[in-house]
Amino acid sequence: MEEIVLIECPRCQERTAQIRDGRTPAGSQRYRCKHCRTRYTPSPKDRGYDEEVRLQALSLYLDDLSLREISRLLSVNHQSVANWINDYATHMPPNLPPSILEIAILDGFYTPPTRPRRRKIGTSESTNTT
Ligand SMILES: [Zn+2]
Asked: Domains in the chain: how many in total?
């Protein structure tokens, strides 16, 4: 008897016969749709990194560390760090700690939605996803 999971196939939108199919390298549960045989991972775990690590990266970035320094400190691909910084520049998570948010606003890194953005974060790094 297979376990019933309330998830939806991203391809055929079926909610039945979605079976577990191992895990991703990051530890997220993968599923397979028995209807269309699509294998997928619902709610991927932040592309493999915890939110905490991402926040650390942002915090270090606001401390004027370079992307490469951050990547070395956190043992994260600097490409990923660049992507996170860009992500946060356009979409701050709602649960961002007030201290970081405040620093971000003071630094001009982040502008609350009620005010127009003053400047854009520019990096010389490519933002290709890994
Ligand atoms: Zn399907």
From this structure: 2
The amino acid that residue 84 corresponds to is W
Residues with CB under 5 A from ligand 1 (ion): 9, 11-12, 14, 33, 35-36, 38
58 with 78, same domain: the answer is yes
In angstroms, the Cα distances linking 68 to 43, 58, 90 are 28, 13, 21
How many other C-beta atoms are found inside a 10 Å radius of the C-beta of residue 121?
15
- Local structure of 21: helix, strand or coil: strand
Order of all β-strands in the sheet with 39-40: 18-23, 29-33, 39-40
Q: What are phi and psi of 20, to 5 degrees?
A: -70, 140
Query: How far does the centroid of ligand 1 lie from the alpha carbon of residue 2, in Å?
Result: 16
Whether the CB-CB separation of 46 and 54 falls below 8 Å is answered with: yes
Structural domain including 69 reads 51-107
Could you read off the pLDDT of 59-91 as tens digits, one per residue?
Answer: 888 888 888 999 999 888 888 888 888 877 666
Find the 10 Cα to ligand 1 centroid distance in Å. 7
